[in-house]
Amino acid sequence: MIPNEPAVVSAGQVQPQEKNSMDNLNPQTAASSSRRPAWRAAVLAGIIASIVFQLLEILLIPSFGGGSPWGPARMIAAMVMGPRVLPPPATFDLGIVLVALVVDIVLAVIYTAILGRLISRWNFGSSLLVAAVFGVLLYLINFYGFTVIFPWFVMGRNGVTLCTHIVFSLTAVLAYKKLLGVRT
Q: Phi/psi at 13 (nearest 5 deg)?
């Protein structure tokens, strides 16, 4: 019998219990068979995905969106600092950028933990598909749902932001799986 495997006691004998068919989707690691996220992996993957997301926003918004590279950071920082930090001016401000980075990392870790739970039983390819859908849903929630609380998020409704949310989720899953030692 495999250690930690559920067992059934029948007529005085211990027999291994058959695994649920869902357990066969991804038997790659012990952590992936749990429905709980691996917190260390979620934190590190969230930080990595957040940094990739922020860098992409800084590079792509001016290139394809026609805005300031610091506009998205100001929108994120305004969640805790209030609308006074919104553009104009959309210039660099170290304090605002640091607040935005901290807020984004905290949210990224939460989102990555959710993703970790969602993909815990899926193989790598299926996990990437789940991540892409999660990225689209995250974009819709952030830029159509949260506009009730943060009306300035309407400014972020564009293709670049949609793409960066998908890349964020894909990066989070890739990093999460790699940190767990799952082969791709």
A: -110, 145
- 109-164 pLDDT, tens digit each: 999 999 999 998 899 999 999 999 999 999 999 999 999 999 999 999 999 999 99
pLDDT digits (tens, 9 = 90+) for 22-66: 433 443 444 444 556 799 999 999 999 999 999 999 999 999 978
| Residues near 173 by beta carbon (within 8 Å), at least 6 away in sequence | 45, 115, 119, 127, 128, 130, 131
Query: Which residue(s) pair with 16 in the sheet?
Result: 7
Spatial contact of 127 and 169, defined as CB atoms under 8 Å apart: no
Q: How far apart are CA 47 and CA 54, in angstroms?
A: 11
Give the tokens for residue 40. Answer: 């260390």
Tell me which DSSP letter residue 11 carries: T
d(CA 47, CA 112): 9
Query: What's the whole-model pTM score?
Result: 0.79
The three-state secondary structure class of 181 is coil
What are the b/e assignments for 128-137, b being 16+ CB within 10 Å? Answer: bebbbebbee
DSSP-derived letter for residue 173 is: H
- Which residue's entry shows tokens 């649920």? 20
Residue type, 85: V
Q: How far apart are CA 16 and CA 42, in angstroms?
A: 32
